[in-house]
Amino acid sequence: MNLSNKVALVTGSTSGIGLGIARALAAAGANVLLNGFGDKALIDKLLAEFRSQYKVKALQNAADVSKPAEITAMVAQAARELGGVDILVNNAGIQHVAPIEEFPVEKWDAVIAINLSAAFHAIRAAIPHMKAKKWGRIINIASTHGLVASAHKAAYVASKHGILGLTKVVALETATTGITCNAICPGWVLTPLVQKQIDAIAAREKLAPDAARMKLLGEKQPSLEFATPEQIGAAALFLCSQAAAQIRGIALPIDGGWTAQ
């Protein structure tokens, strides 16, 4: 697929799933605006890799997506310096685990702001650019937790269910245009966020790393294998294709059978 002259903005893309998606889009020729925090030297190295390996324009914006004004400014940068926003991937996300009666209010507010409200603000800012070009792809990275629940994850599950509702509304509002909006629902993907959960299981239950990994997978993911950022990236690339032009408002699980149970 050729995405030359398209501009992709991927939030939370300096590592993990977001980076896998950004790489897939760049490999197809899209210029990219990465978003995320991190060591400046490592980010500079990442940008150099995109420019040399994929021969695309690559920029980074460190917007804190819990702040609407910074999201608006980031979309404006993409328009100003790269020529618009053709592909928007709302990927940035955080997690906090606690029983609901012990769930810190500030953690609830932070998870909802970053996992859900940020997508609303980014879509709201990007849609006019897509309408001007009569083409656009909005891809929201939800989760299996947008389809089913797990205990002690009130904010995360609520935010991901909300993302699927937002996806459907945007898909309906853009149904007669060249803009599509869909969601991808990954199961366990071995990212830094998931690695922290594996480490916590290992420490709590005094397990070896491999045993902790299998315990995590065994509880939810029947394939007993992690999905990869590259697989998520390939799915995002497909949703950008002409073949997916009439796929609108879906929640696509990539979860090793988690939601088939």
Describe this structure in words.
With 261 residues, the chain is an alpha/beta fold. It is built from eight helices and seven strands. It has a seven-stranded parallel β-sheet, with helices on both faces. β2 (31-35), α2 (40-54) and β3 (58-61) form a beta-alpha-beta unit. The longest helix is centred in the middle third of the chain and has 29 residues, at 105-133. It is globular, with a radius of gyration of 18 Å. The model has no long low-confidence stretch (mean pLDDT 97).
Note the beta-strand portion.
5-15%
**Order of strands across the main sheet:** 3-2-1-4-5-6-7
Mean pLDDT metric: 97
The percent of residues in helical segments reads: 40-55%
Count all strands and give the number: 7
Q: Spans with pLDDT under 50 lasting ≥5 residues?
A: none
The string of secondary-structure elements, in order, is EHEHEHEHEHEHHHE
- Shape verdict: globular
Largest sheet: 7 strands, parallel
Radius of gyration: 18 Å
Q: Structural class of the secondary elements?
A: alpha/beta
Cα distance spanning the termini: 34 Å
If helices are DSSP runs of H or I spanning 4 or more residues, what is the number of helices? 8
